[in-house]
Amino acid sequence: MNEFDIVGCCSDICVFDGAMGLAGYLDQWDRRHIIRVHEDAIETYAKEDRKEYPKAAKLLAEQHGIQYVKKA
After folding, report:
1. Which of 6, 25, 46, 68 registers the highest number of CB atoms within 10 A of its CB?
2. Strand partners, 5
């Protein structure tokens, strides 16, 4: 497999940890894989109380080469 598409129910915990863990694992072998998180297929809980957490998770993941995509 060369491409991974990630969806899930908690964008700043489960989705983030899964994507970062996968990236870290693949980095051990000089990652050349594409990791995509589908923004229109993730969510988080208590959105009003946690507004900055999903943004911070996305920023950190993108800095590690994980792509965030949306349907056009």
Report:
1. 6
2. 36
